[in-house]
Amino acid sequence: MRSERVDSLLKTGESGNTFEPEQLRRRLAALWVAVVALAVVLSGVTAYGYLTLQKHNLQLSQLPGVQETLALASQRLEAVEGKLQAWAADWDTLQARMTGLERRVAYNRELARSEAQKQAAAVEERLRAEAGELANAMDARLTLLESGAEAERARLAQLQEDVAAARTESRRELASVREDLARGDQRVEELARVIDRERVDFEMDKNSTRELAGGVSLRITSTNVAQQKVKGWMWLLPDRKTLWVRELGIQQAYVFYRRDGSGPSELVITSVQDGGVSGYLLVPRAVAGEVSSGAPPQSGAAQPAADGAH
Question: Would you call 97 exposed, middle or buried from its count of C-beta atoms within 10 A (0-12, 13-18, 19+)?
């Protein structure tokens, strides 16, 4: 019965569902202590009863009940002794099974440890591989970002150069536009002066002097009917300046300027005859009505002023 119980305990311990080997060993030790204590108590009770009967001078044979009790106690002691012997045999079996169980537990632990180490190594290898792939991907992305940043820096530098060049070109173009505007304003002013001129027609004889407009006198000294050209000079007031007219043909404009900045004036000969000429003078309206002061110089005393003739 106890052997079956021990087997049951061992099976329970082997299955690992109820007790650990150390816990089972403690329980068995406590059970042995209880059995030994029971045997000691029974032995003490028997000895005490026997000594008591001898003290009162009683004969065991005169006490059938006591003898039966002692016989029963002896039988129980024998039964306990047999049980103890069976327990001892069972203890050896239990020890052997415990040793096997410990070996199995140790083997299972070693197997579990080995399997755990393998799984840990596999997980570590997988994590390392994933970390390596992630690091490679990050390196590639960083390289791409660095190359992109380098390209952006180069593009920004090129853009800055383009902007600087565009600014320089814009300044140059703006200066050119301003110059063009200034020239245009000047041309407009000149054009306005040209437009704002008055035509003075004239006819005069050769070797005669005539005031054509305010401050402008003309003298014709020679005519060439064949070539339709004339020679002579003009006297300007208040500049007191002589302009020589040399081989001026018909419809050729003789342009001259006065010091007052009133604008250009033009002398045009339209016809040349043997004894005289005809033509017109274009002068600014501001000076067309001016009255001259002073007389023109004599032909022999006048000095040329070629820098004013055109």
Answer: buried
